Amino acid sequence: MRFDTKIGIVVREDLAVWQKLNVTAFLASAVAAAAQDAIGEPYADADGNTYLAMLGQPVLIYAADTEALTRTHAWALSRGLPTAVYIEDMFKTGHDEANRATVQAHTTETLPLVGLAVHGPKNAIDKTLKGLSLHP
Q1: Which of 1, 57, 107, 112 is the most buried (most CB within 10 A)?
Q2: CATH tag, 5-38+54-134
Q3: What is the pLDDT of residues 1-41, one digit of tens each?
Q4: Which of 24, 102, 86 is nearest to 60 (CA)?
């Protein structure tokens, strides 16, 4: 199946595995919250148990060093793409309000990015993620 939109998550490659998974989960939830049209239908098994709906299209996960992550962030903002960020400071907080405060404390150029997610038209996302490799 071909999609008109694309979801990409970029994670800094030098993070611990648990951090990569945590960042990816939080960033995917941001896309799901903002892009209701990207959510599929709820699931059900043959016994009638129901399960939550998920994103209805693939989520591509990319690895990047700090420089590539910063560049990708700038490209996403310059294209006006819906973007979610996860910064290093958020590993030290325990709740959403504190997470928002850590982001608010930085200028765009000084955000200590460890991950970002973008969702939008396939061509714009492809241009934004150009040069990045899929996470191994």
Answers
A1: 57
A2: 3.40.1490.10
A3: 788 999 999 999 999 999 999 999 999 999 999 998 889 99
A4: 24
